[in-house]
Amino acid sequence: MREHPEIRITVLGSGTSVGVPSIGCACKVCRSPDPRDKRLRPSILIGYQGRNVLVDTTPDFRQQALRSGIERLDAILLTHSHADHVLGLDDVRPFNHMQRDVIPLYGSEATLRDVRQRFDYIFHGAASQSSRPKLECRVFDGAEFDLFGLPFQPVRASHGEGVVWGFRFGPAAYMTDHSDIPDASMELLRDLDVLFLDALRYKPHPTHSTVGRSLGCVERLKPRRAFFTHICHDLEHARAESLLPAHVRLAFDGLEIVVEERRNAG
C-alpha cells in the first residue's frame, strides 16, 4: 500500500447549483435554523504538507475562503465548467498577490477551453490596467498526475449527457455532479477511507445521482466512510442523515475530515 501524507479535507460547500436556502423559497429546509441546512455551492479544500489544493471555484468562493480562513492556494482542480463550479475564479487574485506567483489550474481539455472563453480577460495576454488572476492552465487526460508529492487520479463520470471529472487522492475520492459512474471508473474508487458522492435528492434527476443510487455505489465500493454532497433543499440534514447507515453521512459546510490509511480492505 502506498503511503500518503496526512490529508485534511474541508467541505467549503455542500449545496446544489442555486444553494440552500434557495432564493424565494419558504420550504422547511430553506427556513431551517440548523446551520447544516445552509449550503453554499459545492467545493472542497484538500490540505497536506502545508499545501492547499482547491476543487472548483464556486460563485461563493470568496465567502468560503473567508469563512474557512484559507491563507494560501497552491493549485486548483476543476471538475467541469458549469457556472456553479467556476464562476468564483476571479476571486483567486488575492492569493496571487500574497504568494507572488501563478497558480496552476487543472482541468480537462473541454473544461479549460470553456473557462478560457468565459474568462477571456484572464487569458488573452493583452496589457491591462486592472488586476486579474495569474493562472497556468494544465490539461489532464485521465492519467494520474502528481501535485506536491500526492498523486491525483482523475475519475471520469457522466453528468447527464455531459462529462464530469472526480479525483482520487490517496485513500480518498471526491465525486460530484454525476448521474452515472461507469464500471472502469468504479474500479478506481475501491479501497477508500473517504468517498464523496453526489446525492442531490430522493427523486430521480437527469443529471445527478439520488440518495438511493449513491447508497448503491457505497454498497458496491465499500469505503470506510462516505459523505453525500451537492444536496438540494429536498433533504433536511438531521432527518435525512438519521435514515442513512452509520458510515454514510451528509456533508455540510465547514465539515473537516482527516483521511486515514485504509487497511484490511476487502
Number of domains: 1
Proportion of helical residues: 10-25%
What is the average per-residue confidence, as pLDDT, rounded to a whole number?
95
Beta-strand segment tally:
14
Number of helices: 8
Strand order, sheet with most strands: 6-5-4-3-2-1-14
Strand content: 25-35%
Question: End-to-end span in angstroms?
Answer: 14 Å
The CATH topology is given as Metallo-beta-lactamase, Chain A
- By helix and strand content, what is the structural category? alpha/beta
Which architecture would the CATH scheme give at its second level? 4-Layer Sandwich
Unreliable stretches covering 5 or more consecutive residues: none
The CATH C-level name is Alpha Beta
Taking the sheet with the most strands, its summary is:
7 strands, mixed
Topology, please?
Elements: E1 7-13, E2 43-48, E3 51-55, H1 61-68, E4 75-77, H2 83-86, H3 93-99, E5 103-107, H4 109-118, H5 120-123, E6 135-139, E7 145-147, E8 150-159, E9 162-169, E10 172-174, H6 183-186, E11 194-198, H7 211-221, E12 225-229, H8 237-242, E13 248-250, E14 256-259
Parallel strand pairs: 3-4, 4-5, 5-6, 10-11, 11-12, 12-13
Antiparallel strand pairs: 1-2, 1-14, 2-3, 7-8, 8-9, 9-10
